[in-house]
Specification:
Blueprint (H helix, E strand, L loop, with lengths): L1 H7 L3 H6 L9 H28 L11 H6 L11 H15 L5 H26 L7 H23 L7 E4 L4 E4 L3 H20 L5 H20 L2 H7 L10 H19 L8 H19 L2 H7 L1 H20 L9 H7 L4 H21 L5
Antiparallel strand pairs: 1-2
Helix pairs in contact: 3-5, 3-11, 5-6, 5-11, 5-12, 6-7, 6-12, 7-8, 8-12, 8-14, 9-11, 9-12, 9-16, 12-13, 13-14, 13-16
Length: 366
């Protein structure tokens, strides 16, 4: 919005006189300001949201595992649906600092609002009825519908760009042309990344911290992909305009830092599906826009491992009748083994940080 005002009020030349940058888009500055703004909004909105949520939406820890219920007993009555002020901070900061004419920004806003609303409905049903939220089928259908809209517009945009429809292997620069299959692939990535973050959100600050590292990595990747010189230097696809997603991801990282202020151990609030679903979807969108879905597997390695632990646990149990690990997702396995929750979370954060660094470093491996 501010960018629109600067351009339409003919202030661009005046602003440039006081800017050390050489870009009329001020992308670096806007990304930084989006992060700071979103962080402050989360910090300011947090106490009010937590008080309101505490009077209406308190978590009730109920699972199929009695042992897990015992371990998480102290978390009962903790307010949930904290994703409300995460999404609010992201949307407000993006509206303020983003280029609202950008297709990528528009798609990001649609994803954040759509998946956030879906998560909110799911959380509300869990907390106000005897049902355990929406059924898996219902949730997947809605996610697929929203993701299909985004995938269709993204396909139309990327079809005009060099390597826009290629699946890129970052090491060695191998590629596979997807063609119209890009739409189905995009739906899979968006829904998969959304649910992966959701599965990881099981301990205080776990998904929040890992998302901060993954989001920071994709701030860099979206910025580089939108910079013609840097994209050429790193031999990655040049996607004009992808840098605008840096604003959205900056807002996301800022909001998650603000949320972590309240969500770190012992948590004052949980994000619920209201927060985890849109956050995961935004990471998926960043990977699709920059054509770095393979790097998403590395950057979001913690989310991938957590998801695989659930799939393997279920499959192994159906085949053998025994459990592969003590309890899935993987973080619960370590909890069952007697590790303190805070130690598990910090170690997962360290792993997430290292994976983000590895992903960025891999850009120059040919």
């Amino acid at each position: 919005m501010l960018l629109w005002l600067i351009h339409n009020l003919n202030l661009i030349e005046s602003v440039e006189l006081h800017s050390s940058g050489d870009s009329r888009l001020f992308l670096t500055a806007r990304t930084a300001m989006a992060s700071v703004t979103s962080f402050l909004l989360a910090i300011l909105l947090g106490p009010f949201a937590i008080r309101w949520l505490k009077s209406r939406f308190q978590e009730c820890i109920v699972s199929d595992s009695e042992r897990l219920n015992e371990l998480h007993a102290e978390k009962n009555a903790t307010p949930t649906m904290g994703g409300i002020f995460i999404v609010a901070a992201i949307l407000m900061s993006t509206l303020l600092w983003g280029n609202l004419t950008s297709t990528y920004v528009q798609l990001a806003l649609l994803l954040a609002a759509g998946f956030g609303l879906l998560g909110g409905i799911d959380d509300w049903i869990k907390l106000n009825t005897q049902k355990n939220g929406l059924s898996v089928r219902q949730k997947l259908i809605v996610q697929t519908v929203i993701a299909s809209i985004v995938a269709w517009f993204l396909y139309g945009d990327h079809a005009t760009k060099q390597h826009g429809l290629d699946l890129i292997w970052p090491i060695g620069n191998g590629s596979l042309f997807l063609g119209a299959g890009f739409i189905a692939w995009s739906i899979f990535v968006l829904v998969g990344s959304s649910n992966s973050v959701n599965l990881t959100d099981g301990l205080d600050g776990l998904a929040t911290g890992c998302t901060i590292f993954a989001g920071a990595a994709f701030i860099v990747l979206t910025y580089l992909a939108g910079h013609v010189v840097m994209a050429d230097y790193l031999s990655i696809p040049f996607i004009p305009g992808s840098g605008e997603l840096s604003i959205v991801l900056g807002a996301m990282v800022g909001a998650m830092l603000g949320f972590l202020w309240f969500n770190c151990y012992p948590a004052q609030v949980f994000m619920g599906d209201t927060g985890s679903l849109p956050i995961g979807a935004l990471l998926g969108l960043a990977a699709l826009v920059t054509r770095q879905e393979v790097l998403l597997i590395i950057v979001g390695g913690v989310f991938v491992i957590e998801t695989l632990s659930v799939i393997l646990q279920v499959g192994w149990y159906r085949l053998t009748g025994s459990r592969l690990i003590a309890c899935s997702p993987l973080h619960n396995h370590f909890l069952f083994r007697g590790h303190h929750e805070l130690k598990i979370v910090v170690r997962f954060w360290i792993g997430s940080a290292l994976l983000a660094i590895m992903a960025i470093a891999s850009l120059k491996i040919h």
